[in-house]
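User: Sequence recovery, please. Input:
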């Protein structure tokens, strides 16, 4: 996909953060936009910022498989095709394995993994039919390394990575006209930490404050990096210097990165 003009781009989680910034950046490049979010108010704010662009909004809970498939059919009815799906919607959970409730574990997996998997599968036939498609799935740097108290988030984001990398190989081997990219953002200045669920023993305010200190990249900058990666058909798109650093540590040390994370966590999470 060398040119985005008049391409139909579908973005989940478009009501704030990276999703909103992607919508604005793609609109500038001439994309037609199908934007969804569970937050109707935030979605309306995104649409209001895109006056003059070809935009339709859809209230969508990506944890609902049937709703995602219905959404794909509706988008194609409204726009005639779909070229680019960016499965961006996501949530966060901070809890140890022993304290995490089954309900919270299922909540994050339903959104962060199954929302991505069902979004990909629902739109894939339409991307193939378009003759020029691209799947972009948002993982995380926590899809590269494991971190204490992030086991559920790690599980979802590692799963997104494996699912997406496998799909990319399948599309190439099957000679399908669909590119596939997996995105690994580092700390991005969004509201995800503010809406994160925590276990009873976690200090939510401290968690959010700590995240804010580590958030190095603005959503607008993240969107530009992602779009550049799409146009270059990158298999792995790293967002932020922290993401590049973590990726390098993972490549150089393999599983030996874990003592480094343990030392950091002992000081910052278990002190």
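Assistant: Recovered sequence (271 residues):
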């Amino acid at each position: 996909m060398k040119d985005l003009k008049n391409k139909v781009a579908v973005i989940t989680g478009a009501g704030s953060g990276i999703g909103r910034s992607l919508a604005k950046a793609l609109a500038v490049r001439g994309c037609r936009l199908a934007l969804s979010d569970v937050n109707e108010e935030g979605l309306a704010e995104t649409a209001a910022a895109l006056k003059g662009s070809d935009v339709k909004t859809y209230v969508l809970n990506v944890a609902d498989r049937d709703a995602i498939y219905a959404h794909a059919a509706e988008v194609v009815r409204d726009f005639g095709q779909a070229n680019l799906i960016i499965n961006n919607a996501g949530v966060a959970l901070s809890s140890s394995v022993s304290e995490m409730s089954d309900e919270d574990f299922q909540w994050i997996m339903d959104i962060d993994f199954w929302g991505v998997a069902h979004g990909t599968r629902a739109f894939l036939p339409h991307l193939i039919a378009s003759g020029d498609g691209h799947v972009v799935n948002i993982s995380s740097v926590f899809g590269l390394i494991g971190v204490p108290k992030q086991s559920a988030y790690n599980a979802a984001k590692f799963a997104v990575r494996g699912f997406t990398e496998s799909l990319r190989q399948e599309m190439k081997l099957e000679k399908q006209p669909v590119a596939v990219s997996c995105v690994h953002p580092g700390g991005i200045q969004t509201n995800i930490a503010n809406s994160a669920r925590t276990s009873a023993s976690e200090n939510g305010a401290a968690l959010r404050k700590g995240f804010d200190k580590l958030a190095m990249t603005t959503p607008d900058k993240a969107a530009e990096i992602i779009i550049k990666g799409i146009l270059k058909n990158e298999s792995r798109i790293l967002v932020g210097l922290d993401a590049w650093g973590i990726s390098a540590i993972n490549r150089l040390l393999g599983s030996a990165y874990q003592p480094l994370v343990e030392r950091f966590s002992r000081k910052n999470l278990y002190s």
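DSSP finds nine helices and nine strands in the chain.
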